[in-house]
Amino acid sequence: MQNTFLIRRQSVLVFIGLLALFTIGATLLSEGLGIGLVSTSFVKTLGKTLCLCLVALAMDLVWGYCGILSLGHFAFFGLGGYMIGMWLMYARTEQIVINSLANASLPPTPDELSDAIGTQIFGVVGGSDIPAVWTFAHSLPLQLALVVLVPGILALVFGWLAFRSRVTGVYLSILTQAMTLALALYLFQNDSGLRGNNGLSGLQNIPGAAAVSQDLISIWFLWASAFALGLGYLFAVWLVSGKFGSVIRAIRDDETRVRYLGYSVEAYKLVVFVITAVIAAIAGALYYPQAGIINPAEIAPIASIYLAVWVAIGGRGRLYGAVVGAASVSLISSWFTSGQVPDLPLGFYTVKWVDWWLVLLGFGFVLVTLYAPQGLGGLFDRLVRRQNP
Amino acid sequence: MLRILTVMVMLVIATLPVAAQTGQLQTILQENSKDVERASRKTISAVLDALLASGNENVPVLLENWQNKQLWMRKADGLFFYVLKPGAKPIELINIDTGAVEGTAEKSDLKELRPNSGVRSVMAAVLVQFQLKSSDPMTRLGALSAIERSAEESHFTALRAAVANETDDAIRAKMQRLERLLTIQFDKQSTARVEAIESFAGDTSLDVRAVLNPILITRTKVAESIPETDNLAKRLSVGDDIAYADAYQMLVDSERAPARISKQARDAALVENISNGQVGGFEVASLNTEAARIKAYQALVAESDVPPFITNEAVQAAIDNHVFYDAYIEPEATVTDAARKAVRAINLSVSAYQIADLGLDAVSLASIYFLAAIGLAITFGVMGVINMAHGEFIMIGAYTGYVVQQIIPDYTISIIVALPLAFIVAFGAGVVLERLVIRHLMHRPLETLLATFGISIALQQLAKNIFGTQARPLTSPDWLDGAWIYNDIVSISYIRIAIFILALLFLVLLLFILNRTRLGLEVRAVTQNPRMASSMGINPDKINMLTFGLGSGIAGIAGVAIGLFGQVTSELGSSYIVQSFMTVVVGGVGNIWGTLAGASMIGSLQKVIEFFNPSNTLAAQTYMIIFIIIFIQFRPKGIIALKGRAAGD
Amino acid sequence: MSKNPMLLEVSGVSVTFDGFRAINNLSFQIASAELRAVIGPNGAGKTTMMDIITGKTRPDTGKITYGRPGKNLLKMSESAIARIGIGRKFQRPTVFENQSVFDNLVMALKKNRSPLDVAFYRRSQEDIKKVEDLAAEIGLTEQLHRMSGELSHGQKQWLEIGMLLAQDPKLLLVDEPAAGMTPEEREKTTDILRKAAKTRAVVVVEHDMEFVRRLNCRVTVLHEGSVLAEGSIDHVTKDQSVIDVYLGR
Questions:
Q1: What residue ranges are annotated as transmembrane (chain B) (predicted)?
Q2: Does residue C105 form part of some domain?
Q3: Average of pLDDT values for B616-623?
């Protein structure tokens, strides 16, 4: 069955092929395993971009296909990052503490260990007790389960409340934005148990892999991200190409009518909302070990809106559109804001792109919404249609 | 020799007149000249006592000048003079007894006495007694407030005497009140103190609370049985009122019980007795749990001279043999009883006032939310256009105010100019946005949301590029500074009152425009059925443009108000946007009253949550948003829902 | 009556919008295989009645039971009501224009509608056959793989009726099926509805007396939210109160 499914959709094969080529190419050019033409930090940027593509894919499923303009999916992304970050930080601190206590005159007791770890991690917010939310932080499998469970359950509860009361359209968008704001504000507090605005840091150091250089770790994560994106893409294509896709697109276009066909619209929306939240969380869990640090500012409502911008520019309702949009806009964005773009002297005024990039992006986005509502993907489709009428 | 004689004669002549005129004050000062010159808090009282004992009427003048560093000493003969103009050349010397000018001297010949602050406060305390008798009512009032600031026992008798002689009713009332306060603190008769305490029942002033609270300070004590002499406040039950560890520590501190072996002491003892990788017969490597360490230590107790653990039973027995209790420092039980009763009554009225103050705070926060949201109530609520750049219109208004203040330095005039100008600028921006973007995205709310969000990013960054990232001040005129103060608890700043009035004005104005004018009628017609409206000769494009401009312009005015209240930054608007949308949604879309209801609810809710958890406004906002999400479950159409058959299908 | 048991019983239903009583103590029954026309002037409460039966509007008072044993419809959601066999066709044709006629019909086929079942649904030969038969019945075989947005108005109406039939409902509520149709299209619509009514109950809300006459069935006249008259078309058109309501306006 999988065969027929793949053969039926050649574009999927093209996508997977391109993704593989890209990953192999980046590996061959990298410092870790290749000829060293591409720096390790750029490999990380590429890996992170793949994760952003994955969360954009989730956004496209929930918005482009199901019509729910969620302004909260980056919050799920961040939560996923927090969950994996807790293990990374805890396990690494534990190793450091064990090493430093190795020469103590008495072997440390569990209490002493946890005290020392607590002081290391929470000293910065004036605490030494390990908060209850870190109960499972010592175990990778449990914390990996939380990567899926915490955002999933949050999405389930929030979605159930919101969809049950038939909040739709912009109201739902505002509500999801409020949820995101509430989460970010909560995490900003020092007594949230997640180190307040300091966030979690040192996540690029993988516990138990201290001997492995960052050059190599960056390649691991590049492959992991590419694998996750490929898998996510296959899943998304499978989901939207069948009857399920038919139903959620119908919900997007006219949910009342779908209700009279006997489909429980709320259940479908909830399923899509939760599944995409989980995909976003997985993307976040892969992203933040490459970024090295996560803090509540990452979760701020604006991030989720940027996510919507990427998908809109790429072309919503097309899976490849989301990927193209996220990859191009985020890469160009980091290029402009890194200060690598030469300033533009106008004689009377010099345009510094670091300052003006957001102005350009903002107005550019308005133009896309006005004149290319289907995004780059829409333009591409029109071009293809013109060639093969 | 002759020359020396001449000089000596000259000197005698020069000093003679001075010596001849030495008055009583100068004499007293000369007798204590060492203590005068190098006055310290300890030594000064002797000098002051001598001065007071003299009964000289010029003592207050002397003390005042001394306090103000106007008492100088002539180095040559050690005599003291007043120097009122230290900048003059040469410096004029004034006799401290007669007040007459007595000659001049160079600055280098004189020494300025600089009493330190401790000395000055002692002097001030003495001075107060004279000031209370002064004929100038302002001086007497000044003395009273000096006593209020730091009351001393010596004031008490002086004040009592002054009350009897006071002629001014207002001042006498003040004096009597102060006298009662001092009675509570310093009277020897406990009946008089109790009476004074009872006279303050229900008085919520800070000074009363400041006097009563120290009476009720307690100290935790331990004894075999409670001594009769202690004024018992409460017997403590160990485990409930005081933790076992703390109770035992008290016993240890008062040497009634031996200290327990702490973990550190235990571990130190273990480390000290390690030999051949073993301690107490246990491998060191095995001591990685508490239980193992305790066992090893117990083994160690058996074989060497480390002190044994104190068992829990011993601790329990020691605690059982003692009573723990809180005792008042104040020994008089009648006084503490009266104070407790008075404080309870005061606390009751304090909490009543606190609720009133909370109400005022809530109203003021609600008016800010209302101002921020009312523009949205028109564009989003009435027109149904979602404008994520609404916050940036607020920001535009605030920056307009800032720019106007740069040009017009007079704050009053600049505010008067800024308010309409902010409206015009934001109105213009709104009209441009409507014509260029929103009109083309009619009936595509999600696209409108995103496009206006693009505008919002661009405008914010533009503001950053133009005005920089640091906050710009928007200064309110003097007459808006200060606050309306009802009592020590209830008060509200004028600027908040102004914002409240502004919010009220807008409410009335908008209700008038929407319900009583032609424009309002056409707006409602266009929003309900644009095709029908246009067939009746209304130009929907124009109406939409004007309405959107109106909403944006009001946001501009709100920006000036919010800028006065806080500071102008490029993030000013975006920090209100989520709350503003919440306000409109919670209140009920399409309805100005709904926005008012929403703002009131969110404002008071936030204040109430902050009241219960004052240290954490972030948490307050989090809980508020969660509450709103849940609230929408039960009233999806908001507080004031427009009823009717749903349109569509 | 016993050989044709009651399928739907509406009793004493009232609903008020903002002081306006749209449905006033309305009671009627539909048998399990019956074609019924509901007529009435504008504002008589026809659409509101359908809204109440399909769960969109909750009445203030009254009771609606459906099937044997009688289920209380008032406690069910719109989708649950649709799943137990009540189909509704809207006045404006509402099909999913971005999807093919085939996909529209597949979505409507009577199948388990839970998200999990739908996600793992695979088209069986049997289902494809069923869809093709339906397409033939509504005359859209040629258009089966075209986007439904490209269909003509009448074709969309038929597609919607086809989707209703695919749901295999026991009760079909049809709102003004003939609006905007050519005479030939009306003829065909009448045939489809009459045929459908042989195996199930069909309630047609209509303005057009000619169309109702052609249906040749029992007629219920609604006025100001309650039943004014009921009987054959000839019976109700002779009823004085009906004449007053229709002509008195």
A1: 368-386, 415-433, 494-514, 545-565, 577-599, 611-634
A2: yes
A3: 78
- Minimal Cα distance from C81: which residue of A? A262
Size of interface B-C (CB pairs under 8 A): 11
Residue A11 in this model has a pLDDT that exceeds 70: yes
Q: Is A350 helix (H, G, I), strand (E, B) or coil?
A: strand
Q: What is the mean pLDDT of chain B?
A: 83
Query: What is the span of the domain harbouring residue B234?
Result: 218-328
Q: What is the DSSP secondary-structure string of B163-183? A: HHH---HHHHHHHHHHHHHHH
**Which of residues 99 through 118 in chain B touch A, CB cutoff 8 A?**
none
Instruction: Classify residue B210 as left (phi > 0), alpha (psi -120 to 50) or beta.
Output: alpha
Which domain, by its residues, includes C201?
6-247
Q: How many structural domains does chain B have?
A: 4
Say if the Cβ atoms of C48 and B643 lie within 8 Å.
no
Chain centroid, CA A370 distance in Å? 27
Q: Which of B131, B557, B174, B639 is nearest to B381 (CA)?
A: B639
pLDDT of residue B21: 52
C84-136 tens-digit pLDDT: 889 888 877 788 988 999 999 999 888 888 898 888 888 888 889 999 998 98
**CATH code (residue C37):** 3.40.50.300
pLDDT of residue A1: 39
Reduced to 3 states (helix: H, G, I; strand: E, B; else coil), residue B282 is strand
Instruction: Return all residues near B27 (Cβ < 8 A) that are at least 6 apart.
Output: none
Residue C138 domain-assigned? yes
Q: Give how far Cα B545 sits from Cα of A388, B219, B523, B577, Å.
A: 43, 72, 10, 22
The answer to whether residue B488 sits within a structural domain is: yes
pLDDT, mean of residues C44-51: 85
Paired with B73 in beta bridges are B80, B111
Is B471 found in the same domain as B383? yes
Bond prior to C69 in cis (omega within 30° of 0):
yes
Partners of A324 in the β-ladder: none
Return all residues near A119 (Cβ < 8 A) that are at least 6 apart: A128
Which chain B residue lies closest to A113 (C-alpha atoms)? B288
- Cβ–Cβ below 8 Å for B645 and C90: no
Integer Cα distance of B87 and B104 in angstroms: 13
User: Measured between CA atoms, how close is C238 to chain A, in angstroms?
Assistant: 37
Model pLDDT for residues B81-129, shown as the tens digit of each residue:
888 888 777 888 888 888 888 888 888 888 888 888 778 877 877 777 7
Other residues' Cβ atoms within 10 Å of the Cβ of residue C61: 11
Neighbours of chain B (3+ CB pairs under 8 A): A, C
Neighbours of A293 (CB within 10 A): 15
| Residue with the larger pLDDT of the pair A141 and B101 | A141
Interval C223-237: pLDDT, tens? 888 888 888 888 888
C residues 38-97 lying closer than 8 A (beta carbon) to A: 54, 77-80, 82-83, 87-88, 90, 94, 96-97
Q: Is the pLDDT of residue C172 over 60?
A: yes
Task: Note the pLDDT tens digit of each residue in A207-217.
Answer: 888 888 888 99
Looking at residue B295, its pLDDT comes to: 87
Per-residue model confidence (pLDDT) at position B646: 35
- Quick one: B205 and B226 in the same domain? no
A130 secondary structure, DSSP code:
P
Q: Which residues of C touch B643 (CB under 8 A)?
A: 17-18
b/e C101-136 (16+ beta carbons within 10 angstroms → b): bbbbbbbbbebebebeebbebeeeeebeebbeebbe
Number of structural domains found in chain C: 1
C-alpha B203: how far from chain center: 21
**C-alpha to C-alpha distance for A150 and A285, rounded to whole angstroms:** 12
In terms of domains, do B502 and B590 share one? Answer: yes
SS3 A34: coil
* Shared domain check, B232 and B210: no
